[in-house]
Every structure is written in C-alpha cells, then in structure tokens.
Amino acid sequence: MKNRKLYVGNLSDAVTNDELQELFANYGDVEKVNIIEGKGFGFVEMSRPSEAERAKQALNASELKERTLLVNEARPPKTRRGGGYRRY
Question: What is the pTM of this model?
C-alpha cells in the first residue's frame, strides 16, 4: 500500500471520530479522522503506509456497532469540472 489514507464505509450514524480513532490506534499512529456526517463513511489517515495496510487487513469486514466495516485504500478525489453554463 502506497497510501496512508483509508476509506471506512458502512459506518453507523452513532460512530464518532473519537471512537474511530481509538479503533484504528490499535494498528499505529492515527493522524486524522474525518467522518462524513449522514453519509455512512469516513476517512482515517495513518502516519505510515505500513500501519494503514495493517489496519486495513485487520479491520476490513470487522464489526463496529452492529455494522460490518468496509476498509479500503482511499482513492484521490475526482477533479470536478466547472458546472453550470456560460453566458456569452
């Protein structure tokens, strides 16, 4: 794994940033946690790619608050092209 950032899907709305940080801290140093409210997913950034890989292997398909987690390497965000229309 080249990336330190993980996508964490199928999160319960009851999961907090602190709980997710505590869970991933068992596998290395957590630099940042960001749960996207109301979407059921979030991102965890570990300090090293090896720690991210270890957390991914251990936590993918594990259970947290009666939900089976989906943990994958985060993909870079898609670049958005300007929307709308142009006035001439």
Answer: 0.86
